[in-house]
Each structure stands twice: as C-alpha cells, then as structure tokens.
Amino acid sequence: MPRVIVYYAHPGHRHSQSNAAMWKRAGQVEGITLVDLYAEYPRFHINIAKEQDRLLSHDVYVFQFPLFWYSTPSLLKEWQDLVLEHGFAYGKDGTALAGKAMQVAVTAAGPEDAYAPTGYNRYPLRDFLRPLEQTARLCCITFLTPYALHGSLKAHNKAHIEHHIAQYSNLLEGLRDGRVPLKEAAPGTLLAPDTLAGMQGV
Fold first, then answer.
1. What confidence tier does 155 reach under pLDDT thresholds 50, 70, 90?
2. pTM
3. How far apart are CA 143 and CA 162, in angstroms?
4. DSSP secondary structure letter of residue 184
5. Contact at 8 Å (CB) between 34 and 55?
6. 202 belongs to a structural domain
C-alpha cells in the first residue's frame, strides 16, 4: 500500500478555522505520517537531510495549506527551495522521487466565483497552483487532482465545511489504502467534496 505523508503549512494555525479542523481530522487517520512545518521549523531552520529521508520513505506527498497571496505560505516555499535539491529531486542524476505522487489540499478565502475571468481574482484557482504542478513534473512526481475549498473564511458557518472535512479524511484513507488512482490531474480540474464522493472506491 502507498505510504502517505501530510505536510501542513499554516503560519496562523491558532487563528485558523477550516485548515485547523482539516488538520485535526487528518490526525485521526491511522497509518499516515503528519508533519506540521511551522511547528517543526518555527525559525525556518529546515533539516534538509531529514526531509529528504521522509520523501524517500513515502510514496504520496500531501501538501495542506491556505492560499497566501496566490501562492503557498512562505515556509512551504522555503522547504521546496532547500529540500528539492538539484541532483536529488531533479537534474541529470536527480531521480530520487521519480514515481512518487503529490496531492495538494488547498483552501482559498474567496468564493468560487471570485476565481473566474469575471471575478476579482481573474483566474481559476488551479492556475495559482501551476508552480506546484510544474515542480512535481520536473521531479517526475505525478500531480494528482487538487482538493480545494473555496470561501474558507465563511465556511465554518456552513454545513458543507463538515462535509469537506469528512471527505478530506476519506481522501487520505483512500490514498493510504490504494483506492485513489495515482493518475496525473486533468488540466484545470479540482476535487471538491461532491466530486470526491463520486469517485469509485473513495
């Protein structure tokens, strides 16, 4: 079965609503590894060797984070810059991660209609994840369809946040048990709770 590791990156975890609840639920899923990057590296002193060993010993990497200024939180970007070294993750001899898979679980404060040509963010949410997608491809890692929550700041007042969290747990269990196909994401697609619920075996 695939070995799954979840990297959580939220600089304001104590103020979080949706992500904190998702992270708590992830902690209830047996048989996966959990890493809270901001708790482990509060001063950004990343242990590169330790992180590379973690990557080598797992098959599926889940990155859970809120969208910050149309990108990842800064520590996650620092982690990428340092850990995914030339000769290890990419380059002529950098094939250590080939065949692994990456799953992104992202929350966005804006509603879904804000991520459209007529919305104030102008582009689909998937467009802002392209750097991660291309990073995965450069490292010969399969980029899975991202799991996304729009309108996360207000989602805690709606029943659908509970459904979103439950389906996140199901996604992690499906990845762990090999029930989620590790296939390259189709262009422009996102996983939402309803679409995830319709996936066979998840």
1. low
2. 0.94
3. 26
4. P
5. no
6. no
